[in-house]
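tokens incoming
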């Protein structure tokens, strides 16, 4: 096998093993990173929903209290503001969904499903728990969720959520007196839940993985090409020429060309020594012929 083929074979083998090792290590790392990034985004969105809640109850609702007595405006309800605000956000991030899953909701669309109720109950049973992150199987495949408890910490919430007779009559007219009442201070009544299909972090991880592997292969291909060109120009060509001249001399051709001596590297040294040897040999032969 030629020296260039040996070099290439060895380098490609080493690279292939290296690439397999990189794949094994980075695959799970990139998946973890992508998942973390999605959870971080979900957390920011959830905080945004919370901010919309606070803004609505502190600034919007007081302005419209009088109006509410004539006709109930859901726009003054913190939960409504958060859900609507999130729906607007979803136009840009359609994969993310938000729900204020509640065990006894005022609006039936907020009723906690089985798995959501499990989360709410977990928050109820573990007072210190501030966040639950998990992956569950949904109808459309695995889904990642992030959830925070909704705890009644503000007495103003109880105007509408304690007993129907305390709530604005216009609200009862809209929503009825049966749901969303008998909540108490410090109760966990529900959970904010942001869900994202796992296909999103998986696609992010796959994109990062392909970019990384693609760039590694490209860098290796260029390195291999440069190495091949350098090896051919600096070593293989001069050595082939040297072997051809050595062949000619061994067959008695003392007039064979001098080898070019370029630069000061090992190959140039070898060519210079060879030329000297050829000249000495020529002199020795001439002396032999003279005597
Ligand atoms: C002006 C009355 C009013 C006040 C004050 C109010 N809520 Fe509500 N709340 C409602 C109404 C009405 C809904 C249903 C909104 C809808 O149609 O989505 C609701 C919905 C909710 C929901 C979603 C689940 C459900 O019941 O449909 C949660 C959670 C909630 N409120 C918690 C709170 C908290 C916490 C506070 C205090 C910061 C609060 N609410 C203050 C009237 C009120």
């Amino acid at each position: 096998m030629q020296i260039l083929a040996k070099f290439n074979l060895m380098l490609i083998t080493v690279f292939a093993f290296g690439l397999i090792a990189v794949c094994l290590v980075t695959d799970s790392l990139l998946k973890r990173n992508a998942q973390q990034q999605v959870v971080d985004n979900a957390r920011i969105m959830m905080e945004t929903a919370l901010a919309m809640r606070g803004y609505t109850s502190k600034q919007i609702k007081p302005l419209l209290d009088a109006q509410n007595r004539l006709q109930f405006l859901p726009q003054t309800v913190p939960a409504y503001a958060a859900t609507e605000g999130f729906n607007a956000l979803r136009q840009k991030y359609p994969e993310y969904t938000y729900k204020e899953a509640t065990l006894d909701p005022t609006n039936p669309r907020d009723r906690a499903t089985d798995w959501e109720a499990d989360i709410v109950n977990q928050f109820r049973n573990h007072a210190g728990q501030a966040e639950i992150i998990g992956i569950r199987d949904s109808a459309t495949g695995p889904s990642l969720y992030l959830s925070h408890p909704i705890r009644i910490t503000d007495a103003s919430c109880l105007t509408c959520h304690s007993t129907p007779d305390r709530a604005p009559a216009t609200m009862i007219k809209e929503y009825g007196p049966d749901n969303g009442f008998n909540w108490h201070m410090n109760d966990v009544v529900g959970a904010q839940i942001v869900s994202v299909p796992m296909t999103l972090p998986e696609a992010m991880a796959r994109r990062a993985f392909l970019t990384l592997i693609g760039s590694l292969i490209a860098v290796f291909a260029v390195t291999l090409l440069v190495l091949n060109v350098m090896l051919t120009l600096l070593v293989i060509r001069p050595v082939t020429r040297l072997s051809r001249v050595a062949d000619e001399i061994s067959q008695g051709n003392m007039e064979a060309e001098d080898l070019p001596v370029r630069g000061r590297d090992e190959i140039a040294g070898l060519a210079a020594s060879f030329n000297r040897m050829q000249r000495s040999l020529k002199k020795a032969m001439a002396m032999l012929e003279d005597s």
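note: The domain at 38-197 is CATH 3.30.450 (Beta-Lactamase).
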